Every structure is written in structure tokens, then in C-alpha cells.
Amino acid sequence: MSTPDVVIVGGGIGGLSTAFALSRGGLKVRVLEQAKEFGEVGAGIQLAPNCTRILDDYGLLEEAKARGVVPDTMVMRDAVDGSDLTSLDLRDLERRYGFPYLVIHRSDLHGLFLEACREAGVELVTEQRVTAYSQDGDKATATTEAGAVHEGAVVIAADGLHSVARKLFVDDQPVSSAYVAYRGTVPIAETGRPVDLSEVVVYVGPRCHFVHYGLRGGDLLNQVAVFESPKARAGLEDWGTPDELDTAFAGTCDAVQQGLPHMWRDKWWRMYDRDPITTWVDGRIALLGDAAHPPLQYMAQGAIMAIEDGWVLAEHVKRLRGDDGAVDWAGALAAYEAVRPEHCRRVVLTARAWGELWHLDGVKRERRNVLLRARKVDDYSFTDWIYGPTALFPSHEPAMFEPIPLVTADRLAGDLADALAP
Ligand SMILES: Cc1cc2nc3c(=O)[nH]c(=O)nc-3n(C[C@H](O)[C@H](O)[C@H](O)COP(=O)(O)OP(=O)(O)OC[C@H]3O[C@@H](n4cnc5c(N)ncnc54)[C@H](O)[C@@H]3O)c2cc1C
Fold first, then answer.
1. Tens digit of pLDDT for each residue in 86-99?
2. What are the beta bridge partners of residue 134?
3. Catalytic residues
4. Which of 119, 144, 287, 310 has a CA-to-CA distance to 21 between 20 and 30 Å?
5. Cβ count within 10 A of residue 121
6. Whose CA is nearest to atom 48 of ligand 1?
7. How far, in Å, is the centroid of ligand 1 from the Cα of 265?
8. pLDDT over threshold 60, residue 398
9. Residue 87 CB: number of other CB atoms within 10 A?
10. Distance 306 CA to ligand 1 centre (A)
11. Domain boundaries, given as residue ranges, for the chain
């Protein structure tokens, strides 16, 4: 094997999309994946305009739309009484941001990037579990547990939540939210109830929420049921089990109850994030995707941030590549690190706040509902900073961010109390 320009560790959505972005710019890229095959587990994924903008630039948007569903509306409902709380008109959203809101099966999105990488000539190597990193001047290496040494001008670690490379930067651990997600896909003909696939729906309830939307042109229904585990709160090891699922959703409305029998009950995902870090680059080694910024999923931005990371890095590489093909890697990595960590820090923290807001109970839940119902349907102040192009900034200057509308549950409840005070 000849020496690549870039070695990427991890063949998830972050690693593959970055490999494609760099190779279409003319670099030789090798991806190392620990598994026997490249693939994705899980079900659906939501792709907001800040991602479909990039898919369009990659020439992959039409195929992604063909494999997914482009819904008309996103609706938030109360999980207890089923009433509407607020919504986004996704057609208007598309007009505002220039690109659609799309929902797609994870394996279809992953497969799209895998095919694009193959066509672009990316070297895709499986059964390569990387356990060590090193660097010397203008070279960096990733070494596998079997002793294979992969060298490149740069090594990018896109090795996910349990990243080995992250230990080079910080001595931290994943933070447990004590929430767990059940997923499930079911052929639409087998749901046993009418489901409007023009909607992406989230039912928010006390310590739980339930999401559904269509996949594969409407052939499949994707469902996600998320709840707080009492066993996790009590510090028990065996948490998130199906009995806890049933108890958590016992008080929810008929629409949610009808969806629950279709959840997969043999596997579940415990929800972790990590505290944000702002250093992602050390010489010729860089973090990307969940390795750098794993979020809780409440903003549906984890995979999107990984895709954005790769696009931004590739844009800076393009800008700093000389006529002889040599890349100013120090400049490109510094520019990447100047713009991405702050944006991702805000997404990770805002996702935690959204989780609090969704899962309120008692009077706070009722106050939240009053405020959400009062939201104007064309108020985009919560989405501009994230769906607009500002997160990408292909500039080497630190971005000038708008103040973030970081709404915590307590602040929201406090706002309403203030508003109602005599
Ligand atoms: C319930 C749920 C719903 C979600 N919904 C959305 C959504 O709607 N929209 C969205 O944008 N995001 C969503 N996310 C988040 C999203 O799934 C992740 O942020 C995203 O998959 C991260 O991609 P990644 O490539 O960085 O990491 P990963 O997907 O974790 O990929 C890492 C890859 O690296 C490999 N690897 C790991 N360690 C090594 C090693 N040492 N050597 C070699 N290879 C290694 C792994 O096998 C894997 O293939 C959701 C997450 C959850 C849990």
C-alpha cells in the first residue's frame, strides 16, 4: 500500500463523509475501520438544511432524497394528552435556508457515503482496531492492536463516543444522562394504524419522549422511544430494560401506545454525551465527529456536526493547497479548530437543555406547553444559528457567533412566572 496523505480512523458517517470530502479534493485517503465490514446499526436519522446543503455540494442530495423522505411538517405534541404544542413548516424552512429537511435510514446514508468513497478511490480497510497514535514532524501514524502501522501527513480520529484518540487530548469519560433509547422500524403496512408520513412527530412527556417519521420513500416507519431509567438513577448496572420502557410510557396518549409494540425490545441504546472540549488538534492528529463532540440526540445534530466537520476541513485544505499539491496542514488544521469547537460546544450544551425542556413534569410541563403554543410558527430564532450557513464559515478567522438562544427548562418556567406576575 502506498502512503496516503490522510489516514482516517473510523468508518462511521463522520469518517466516511470526511474521506469523501478530502478525496474529491485530490488527496489520497485511507479509512481504517475496526469492524469486519463497513456498516451502521440503528434506524432513522434526521438531516436538517445545514446538512442537506453539504450533500448538495457533494452531488449526493438527489440520491439521499430518493432513499429517504422529505416531510412537510415537524410537529411537537404533548405525550400525555396528544395535543399539538408547536410545529415547523418544513417547506417554509426549505425556502428560508435553501435546502430541504430530510429523514433517511442510517444505513442508507452510510451506504451513500461508502459508495461515494469507493468511486472516489478512497482506500477502505476493515479489521483495523487502532490503539495508538504518534507523530514526528510532518508525519503522523495510527497503529492497530495487531501492530499494523499506518502513516500519513495527517491522522484524523473519527472513532466515535469511546474514542481512543480523545485520550491524547483530555482525561474524561462519557457522561451518562440516565436516559435510554429504544428504536424500531416497521413496514408501514404493518403499523395497524393510519400514520401521516408528511409529518416528523415528537411527543414530549414527563421523563420520556417518542419520535416517529417515515423512511425509504414511505415504505417504513421509524420510531424512537426515549425515557429516563429509574435503575440508572439508583446506580444499578442493569438499566434500560424493557420493563422500564413499559413503565415509563404507561401514562402516554393512544398515539404513543399504538407505536410501542413495534419497538425492538432486544437492544437499546444508553444515552451519553461528553463535556465539550475546545482543543481538537495536536500537531498532525485531529479529532472529528463524536470523538470530538458527542451530543445527546435531542437536536438531531450529531451526525450532521460530523459531516460539517469534514466539509469545513476539506474547504480549508482546498484553500491552502499549493499548485504543487502540497497542503499547508498546520494552517488547515488551525482554521478547522478555529471554527468548529465553539459551534459544537453550543450544540452539545443546547441539546442537554432541550432534553430538560422536553421531559418536564407537573406545573413546569404546563408552563412549557403554554409557551410553546404561543410560539409563532414562522419564528426561526431557535433554528437560524444552527440551520443557517454560519456554522460552516470557510474562513480561517474565528467565527463571530450570534448569541445562542440557550433555553433551559428552569429559565423557561421562570420567564412564564415573570410574565404572569401581577
Ligand atoms: C437515538 C439516537 C438518535 C440520533 N439521531 C440523530 C439524528 O437524527 N441526526 C443526527 O445528525 N444525529 C443523530 N444521532 C447522533 C449520530 O448517530 C452520531 O452523532 C453519529 O453517528 C456520529 O458519527 P461518527 O462517525 O462521529 O461516530 P460513530 O458513528 O460512532 O462511528 C465511529 C466508527 O469508528 C469505528 N471505531 C471506533 N473505535 C475504533 C478504533 N479504535 N479503531 C478503528 N475504528 C474504530 C466504529 O466501529 C465506527 O464505525 C443520534 C444518535 C442516537 C443515539
1. 999 999 999 999 99
2. 141
3. 213
4. 144
5. 10
6. 12
7. 21
8. no
9. 17
10. 9
11. 6-173+274-410
User: Whole-number mean pLDDT of the chain?
Assistant: 92
**Cα-based distances in Å from 23 to 11, 18, 65, 149, 335:** 15, 8, 23, 21, 19
The one-letter code for the residue type at 193 is R
> Are the beta carbons of 149 and 141 closer than 8 angstroms?
yes
pLDDT tens figures, 282-309: 999 999 999 999 999 999 999 999 999 9
Q: For 71-85, write each residue's pLDDT tens digit.
A: 999 999 999 999 999
CB-based contact 168:133 (threshold 8 Å): yes
Q: Pull the grid cell for residue 20.
A: 469523501
Place of cell 433554528: 383
| Cβ–Cβ < 8 Å for 333, 157 | no
Tell me the sheet residues that pair with 151: 141
pLDDT digits (tens, 9 = 90+) for 9-41: 999 999 999 999 999 999 999 999 999 999 988
Closest listed residue to residue 291, CA positions, set 283, 300, 303, 299 = 303
**Residue among 16, 17, 290, 340 to mutate when testing ligand 1 (max atoms within 8 A of CB):** 290
CA of 181 to the centre of ligand 1 (A): 15
Read off the pTM. 0.94
What is the SS3 assignment for the chain?
Answer: CCCCCEEEECCCHHHHHHHHHHHHCCCCEEEECCCCCCCCCCCEEEECHHHHHHHHHCCCHHHHHHHCECCCEEEEEECCCCCEEEEEEHHHHHHHHCCCCEEEEHHHHHHHHHHHHHHHCCEEECCCCEEEEEEECCEEEEEECCCCEEEECEEEECCCCCCCHHHHCCCCCCEEEEEEEEEEEEEHHHCCCCCCCCEEEEEEECCEEEEEEEEHHHCEEEEEEEEECHHHHCCCCCCCCHHHHHHHCCCCCHHHHHHHHHCCCCCCEEEEECCCCCCCEECCEEECHHHCCCCCHHHCCHHHHHHHHHHHHHHHHHHCECCCCCECHHHHHHHHHHHHHHHHHHHHHHHHHHHHHHCCCHHHHHHHHHHHHHCCCCCCCCCHHHHCHHHCCCCCCCCCCCCCCCCCHHHHHHHHHHHHCC
Q: Please tell me the distance from the alpha carbon of residue 55 to that of residue 306, in angstroms, as a whole number.
A: 13
Residue nearest to atom 2 of ligand 1 (CA): 297
Return the C-alpha cell found at 399. Answer: 467565527
Return the CATH architecture of domain 6-173+274-410. Answer: 3-Layer(bba) Sandwich (3.50)
